[in-house]
Write a sequence for this structure.
């Protein structure tokens, strides 16, 4: 995520605009370069704007954008002739500064006793865009999580998260990990784990159960007392806080070696099914009786996860019912299928059905929990038509979405028809930024209030809470993802007057003054959308997320 202090964005965007227009002076060029060096995220912001400019230039002919029918000014990303050579030159200099650091450790080359924690602290998963393909730095995927609490709150690992190499501390709860090699590992907290690569895991403390199919033959678990090499089996490992350890084989066969021995056969021992060994702190090995009930199984974790999902759904429905009487709520769509008319999106706020939406093309699908519905948007025609009356000094948009792809230059969440003054466009750009576009009332201009990229390839297929706040009292726009502030930006002076929605489209866009509209359909699912006529605070946005988070 980005820092909340984005006051430099306005001046930075102005300088980039001058560059695009071919009017950047030498003094401005020096200022722009200084900002690129000073501010975290500036280089990415520059690169993304260049990419978006190219996308828009491919999508429409120069000068043909929305203002041809509505009178709005030409989009600021459309370039004048001659700007590309300067822009590309600067973009290349930025790209030259990017390096991919690859960490490598040879197998079995770790010291005995307490293992040194040499893997760097994990960072939030990101993707690296190479010349031709996106590079995946992950080694495993979290496929189940039951009341998991991680010590590093900046890197939450819930179901669907990709795990990169690094040290992770699970304080409590259960997680199931599927390694890229094919091994499936269930970890019970508290546990300290070091992810090395798709075939190797270091367990400093904690308890795990692993099922290793033939395709993952050779999967390795390193501990302070032994190195375990799997030969296609199911086993459990338990590492106590004092360093003593045990391994229990439930099926198949494993090999264990002394740590740091480079798998010397002098330290080798094979363990077959129904065998178990404990290793004391001084390295002494003892045969013990295997205890499969000591380690949680995949079926038991599935049962717990199902019960938890049922409980979370009931809690959310109770919270959602409370929103019906909340005077701040403009409209509330819980995306629950209406059995009498499944092509109507029922509004929970109005009894007269005037706020109900008309479903076009979309298919009903599974939502955040088993038993919860959602609408799936896939094709260019998929959309929900709504009409939301009223004028509002401030607003908050909140949606639970599952993005399956960012296929368009702009991917709609809720877009008002056309491009009228103070009728906002809420959408996601192709590079993953949340955007609130507002055409100003007193000037022939508009402002796109952007977050840093919130959605990347590793976010696809996961339920995410996106919130944007237009706070007129404090003259700013704030973006949030999963209850956390991502970006804030001051309103431009020209932004005056109340906001309105009126006729609008969920998951797509309609331009009523043109026989055609730019393709902006969402690729994914929505299972909740709520609009407030007030600016929710940081705490209120967090409460909204906590009430609706899947786990």
């Amino acid at each position: 995520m980005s820092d909340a202090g984005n006051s430099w964005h306005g001046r930075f965007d102005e300088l980039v605009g001058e560059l695009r227009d071919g009017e950047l002076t030498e003094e401005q060029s020096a200022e722009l370069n200084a900002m690129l060096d000073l501010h975290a995220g500036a280089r990415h912001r520059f690169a993304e704007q260049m990419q978006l400019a190219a996308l828009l230039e491919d999508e429409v002919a120069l000068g043909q954008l929305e203002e041809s029918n509505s009178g709005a000014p030409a989009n600021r990303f459309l370039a004048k002739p001659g700007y590309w050579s300067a822009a590309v030159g600067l973009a290349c200099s930025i790209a030259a500064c990017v390096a991919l650091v690859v960490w490598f450790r040879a197998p079995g080359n770790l010291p005995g006793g307490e293992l040194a924690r040499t893997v760097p602290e994990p960072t939030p998963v990101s993707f690296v865009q190479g010349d031709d393909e996106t590079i995946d730095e992950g080694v495993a995927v979290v496929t189940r999580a039951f009341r998991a609490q991680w010590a590093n709150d900046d890197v939450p690992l819930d179901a669907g998260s990709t795990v990169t190499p690094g040290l992770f501390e699970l304080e409590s709860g259960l997680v199931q990990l599927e390694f890229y090699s094919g091994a499936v590992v269930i970890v019970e907290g508290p546990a300290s784990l070091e992810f090395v690569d798709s075939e190797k895991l270091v367990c400093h403390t904690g308890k795990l159960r692993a099922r290793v199919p033939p395709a993952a033959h050779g999967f390795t678990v390193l501990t302070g007392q032994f190195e375990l090499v799997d030969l296609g089996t199911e086993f459990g490992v338990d590492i106590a806080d004092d360093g003593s350890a045990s391994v229990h084989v439930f099926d198949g066969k494993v090999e264990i070696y002394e740590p740091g021995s480079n798998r010397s056969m002098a330290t080798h021992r094979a363990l077959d099914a129904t065998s178990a060994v404990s290793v004391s702190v001084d390295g002494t090995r003892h045969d013990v009786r295997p205890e499969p009930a000591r380690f949680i199984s995949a079926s038991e974790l599935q049962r717990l996860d199902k019960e938890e999902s049922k409980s979370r759904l009931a809690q959310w429905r109770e919270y959602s019912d409370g929103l019906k009487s909340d005077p701040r709520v403009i409209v509330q769509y819980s995306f629950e299928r209406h059995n009498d008319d499944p092509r109507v999106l029922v509004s929970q706020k109005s009894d007269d059905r005037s706020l109900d939406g008309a479903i076009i093309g979309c298919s009903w699908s599974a939502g955040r929990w088993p038993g919860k519905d959602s609408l799936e948007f896939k094709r260019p025609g998929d959309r929900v038509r709504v009409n939301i009356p009223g004028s509002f000094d401030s607003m908050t948009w909140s949606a639970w979405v599952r993005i399956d792809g960012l296929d368009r230059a702009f991917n709609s969440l809720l877009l008002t028809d056309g491009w009228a003054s103070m009728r906002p466009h809420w959408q996601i750009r192709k590079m993953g930024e949340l955007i609130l576009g507002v055409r100003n009332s007193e000037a022939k201009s508009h402002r796109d209030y952007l977050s840093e990229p919130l959605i990347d390839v590793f976010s696809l297929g996961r339920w995410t809470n996106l919130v944007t706040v237009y706070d007129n009292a404090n003259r700013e726009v704030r973006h949030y993802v999963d209850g956390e502030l991502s970006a804030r930006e001051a309103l431009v002076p020209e932004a005056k007057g109340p906001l309105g929605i009126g006729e609008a489209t969920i998951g797509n866009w309609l331009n009523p003054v043109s026989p055609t509209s730019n393709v902006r359909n969402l690729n994914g699912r929505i299972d909740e959308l709520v609009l407030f006529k007030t600016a929710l605070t940081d705490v209120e946005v967090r409460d909204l997320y906590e009430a609706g988070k899947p786990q």
